[in-house]
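Incident log, entry 3
Record: Serine/threonine protein kinase (425 residues)
Problem: checksum mismatch between cached and fresh output.
Input:
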Amino acid sequence: MNDQANSVDERYATTPATLSSWSRQDTTWMLGLFGTAIGAGTLFLPINAGLGGFWPLVILALLAFPMTFFAHRGLTRFVLSGREGSDITDVVEEHFGIKAGALITLLYFFAIFPILLIYSVALTNTVGSFMEHQLHIMPPPRALLSLVLILGLLAVVRCGEQVIVKAMSLMVYPFIVALLFLAVYLIPHWNGGILSTVSVVPTPSALLSTLWLAIPVMVFSFNHSPIISAFAVDQRRQYGAHADERSSQILSRAHLLMVVMVLFFVFSCVLTLSPAQLAEAKAQNLSILSYLANHFDNPTIAFAAPLIAFVAIAKSFLGHYIGASEGLKGLVLKTGRRPAAKNLDRMTAAFMLVVCWIVATLNPSILRMIETLGGPIIASILFLMPMYAIRKVPAMAKYRGQASNVFVTAVGLVAITALIYSLLS
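Fresh output:
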């Protein structure tokens, strides 16, 4: 197996694109990663982070980049450690065996699929609120509205992975401009908001408790693990033995972009809205953009904010569909069945459609789903599994002894224990 891996590296080492030049494909992936991460989680982050108070928010802001970059770099390296062309489910089986591979594939699917459900609910709420409050028309029955929206997104999915990534990267440009515009627009409306809690210095135990429960939401808000497997496979195909170096460059730029943009937006929102208003947005199960649209009397914001939210959620849905479908297909194949590729794609799309539609119609609490389903399960795959592989897998031994490994492991454990506490309470 090692000889085969070495031959692959040697073969690719003679043909990959040079690392000295940044290509258009690299930019496309950078924006695709950004687009996958920035969605419903980001649009709900100001609500949950703002409710925690000023000092916990500042600490979370300082943790955002290292927490995001080191974790996703570890998962990318894990996928790259496998045989050429192997996705994450194949690499798990290669390193840990068939039984462990089936278990991790199951966890991988259940780490990502709930996010599709969250986006389905958020998208339906955003469009329904926009029709009611901005267009002043009665939205169609929730079941019909959610069905139409999900079918529209699945139509894009049918065009293939490369089309999805390109569509997401194209949508990122106007989204970045719009999010930046909205954050700047809010500056004259800053009324202190969260600054009213600056003088309230929490006790060490209270601060740790707030951070402990907020970490899963932060993990979810900056998460783009569903697209990492496809990203790593493409980097291996493009750069061969240099894939680790180039993928780290792409990840660092993508994470810097998303952290700067998101934190500026978050602070602008929490300086504009009072803690009571943030609590009201949480109770209404709306994203911060939809709440701002209903809060301001400005027609531009009233129309722009929900549209920005729609684009953000739609592109994140597309990115997470790649990971969820990959996990579901892996589960089907590990049962021993080998349906034709087209039939497997159709079965996957049908399953996603039916379940997403049912959940979007039922409209459960989005923040509750993030806290109990999204962040903690993702943490197991994104934070802990690559760190365990670094300790146990010879192919990843070269990454041992780094301080970032301890940090990533600690964040993962915090997220998982927060889940257990939330479920018990």
